[in-house]
Amino acid sequence: MSLVVVGSVAYDGVETPHGKVDRMLGGAATYISLAAAYFTPVKLVGVVGDDFAQEDSDLLASRNIDLAGLERIAGGKTFFWAGAYSDDMNDRTTLRTDLNVFADFNPRLPEAYRAEPYLLLGNIQPALQRGVLAQMSQIKLAGGDTMNYWIRDYRDELLQTIAKWDFLLINDSEAQMLSGWRNLRRAAEVIQGMGPRTLVIKRGEYGAVLFHGDDHFIAPGYLLEQVFDPTGAGDSFAGGFIGYLAGEGVAANDADCATLRRAVIYGSVMGSFCCEKFGVDRFRSLTREDVDTRFREFQSCTKF
Amino acid sequence: MSLVVVGSVAYDGVETPHGKVDRMLGGAATYISLAAAYFTPVKLVGVVGDDFAQEDSDLLASRNIDLAGLERIAGGKTFFWAGAYSDDMNDRTTLRTDLNVFADFNPRLPEAYRAEPYLLLGNIQPALQRGVLAQMSQIKLAGGDTMNYWIRDYRDELLQTIAKWDFLLINDSEAQMLSGWRNLRRAAEVIQGMGPRTLVIKRGEYGAVLFHGDDHFIAPGYLLEQVFDPTGAGDSFAGGFIGYLAGEGVAANDADCATLRRAVIYGSVMGSFCCEKFGVDRFRSLTREDVDTRFREFQSCTKF
């Protein structure tokens, strides 16, 4: 019973007010997988060049993450992204995007992946996301992420894709772009009408809102003492959310509100840890016990 | 056992994407008093001109709000403010500020106000705020609001003033300006060190955070179906917060976290209702039962 995660595996260069790293492991599928692996076995689908370091494969492999679906292109270079954050960390400027081998990414699932019940589609071309879902035979719960670029320029394709998803995870500005409404309740109504019964709207440091059928759940953001590097926080959120649901064996037709609400909090917990160090570094030392401790902290500082 | 509320009583002109009103009842003390009056008797201190309409006094008087401290200046005009909101309601531009009689506001408390136990100081000159507190003889719980202008240009005076407060209510950008920290936990530590043991940082639609001693409580914002006019929402929050505490008979030295947390939620509830109609209009029909219903809704949509 594994979770299949599809998306970018990359190297990132990041500058924040706290420092600068020229090249470190990154990519949506990396963060999603590392976060989800605290809850469930993961099978990753992605593509890298032959510059992808052994220590980075080793890190992923050491965490219950199956790399049979991580294609390596001989002579190719791994996707590279570089960005810089503003002083308040709320804006970031992309300094460089070298798609490299990711430009021709066409995810093919290894045979051993196809009967898995859980699927999280990271932000890639909607048609590719649709192709992945079509390769899977026994899905219990599937969904994913998207971004402004696909919403604006590939709208029809995106709508066809998410029509088949059980859940969609997007941020608030994307929800507005997709629905035409800034008001989250109105936006959610429109987006749920597009297919996904479950919608999670991420609001960065302000938390997230879950809509599931007629229910909604408002989760505030965990208050960190310091945000060191927000890169990957949204993907770590996604990983915690779907990882928890997969670990609990939840299927789309029996997903209850209480379990989905806990999944949102586990998502927030994983996103909050991600911000505490550069890149994936916090996950190197993070334990499942740390995760559960923060979940309980979340309860105690939101209860009334 | 009343709450004394000090601050502006005004007429406002407001433009939002939903419409325009040229002149309507407004002012911080008005919103604070109307919201607090759902929980406790209120004694208002303010100043108006002889253009202040009978129907507006009548509205306040009908709500358990004592107007003995509302000075009327013969031949004077009431404070007038006009502003326009951006499409997303998150920014507003001040179009006009005529201080009129408010320019010489020097709050004198009627004898009958001075032994009251609760005090909420709306945003006025810090020295005036200090003078009001000095007129009161049996305070159980006192605090108030301030704004960027006093923080920047009257810092020393403001620090002397809040040093004597049990609680301070400010928004996130003001907390940053006052403390030098954008991070709320760090900002709170610095501000609590200035005097107020209890600090509420308001975050607009994203909710509020309460710091009390070592405890903190993160409250998300209530999700309205439509924000009609946010004018007065922060003051209505303050009114709900202090009104609830006064109604419960809480004193500074026995304020417990659980009660303060509920006060923050009642604050959010009153702020959310305020946004549903222009100006104070929502309070014309709002009942205490509506308030308690929304408090329970808040519980049900934040529980996990």
Could you explain how this protein is built, in words?
Two copies of one chain form a homodimer. The model of chain A has no long low-confidence stretch (mean pLDDT 97). The first copy, chain A, starts with a strand and ends with a helix. In chain A, strands 5-4-1-8-9-10-11-12-13 form a nine-stranded mixed sheet, with helices on both faces. A four-stranded mixed sheet of chain A has the order 3-2-6-7. The first copy, chain A, has 304 residues and is an alpha/beta fold. In chain A, α3 runs parallel beside α5, α6 (172-179) packs across α7 (184-192) and α8 (233-247) packs antiparallel against α9. Chain A has eleven helices and 13 strands. Chain A has helices at 28-36, 54-61, 126-134, 148-153, 155-162, 172-179, 184-192, 233-247, 257-274, 281-285, 288-300, and strands spanning 3-6, 10-16, 19-26, 42-49, 65-73, 79-85, 92-98, 118-121, 141-145, 167-171, 198-202, 208-212, 215-219. In chain A, 50% of the residues are buried. The first copy, chain A, is globular and about 50 Å long. In chain A, β11 and β12 (208-212) form a beta hairpin. The interface between A and B is medium-sized, with 32 and 32 residues.
